[in-house]
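During the reporting period the student researcher (J.K.) took over the structure-prediction task from the postdoctoral fellow and processed the backlog of single-chain submissions. One of the processed entries is reproduced below for the supervisory committee.
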Amino acid sequence: MAISAQTEAGGVSTGEGRNKARGARRWLRLLLKSKTGTVGLLLVLMVILIALLAPVLATQDPAKINASQRLLPPMWLERGTADHLLGTDNLGRDIWSRIVYGSRVSIIVGLGAVVVSGAIGAVLGLLAGFYRRWIDIVIMRVADSFLAIPTILFMLVVLAVLGPGLGTLIFVIGITNWVSYARVVRAEVLSVKERDFVRAAKAVGAKDARIIFTHILPNVMSSFIVISTMNVATTIILEASLSFLGLGIKPPAVSWGGMLSDGRQYLATSWWVATFPGLAITITVLGVIFLGDWLRDMLDPRLKTKE
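J.K. obtained the following structure tokens:
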């Protein structure tokens, strides 16, 4: 009997492993069939690899100032050198190396702020949708209040008070972007909680916490994942905008927005100082958006297409 039970358990475990592998292959096949999703994934993976391999890929110290090498053009133009692939900025710092290290800031802020805002919004949305009544009223009125305040203005005020910095930036963006998560999750919960399996769980006396996190949360995760992916792109742009205004990342840390700010006054004479950081932001955001569009098509049952 014991051997039989072990054999059965082993068979179940193997079956689950095969199902997971089959599911992963299916998702990969669907991704490769989508040109938009494939391009988005490749762009995102490229940026992540650049960030991880920054010490290897950077050819110079990104913070090193060299006045004798200031405003050198990219290597393929006249006066360009192989030591500075994309040229140098107004302080003689290597633009390629600064873009490579700036990718780390964009990824950390993009993912960190989304984790903060997603956690706050998901919890509040679950509570508002499940309990309704005064809890729903209070949470939704607070959300409306946040929507009534211009986001960028609120961030500027808070950052001016707390001071710029990586942690502060993640916190500020996180606490201002939770509203979209809360409203989407609340709407999904209102629909899911009326289904038979939730009513059955209530009928057998399951606790509210178990119903919310075991039965309801898994059924709203698809919408949560889609909105999180799209918000990564928005957060990267917000970080660049705040750094451009001088309220983002503190020097000597490198930010693509800060590089844009440094190069804006040289657009007429030294276009590369601002152009290449701008291209880095554009490529990263496009990659995230393309991947988010594909995820939306796959996870939204109203948009799914037949294989």
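The committee noted the following: The radius of gyration is 24 Å.
J.K. will present the remaining backlog at the next meeting.
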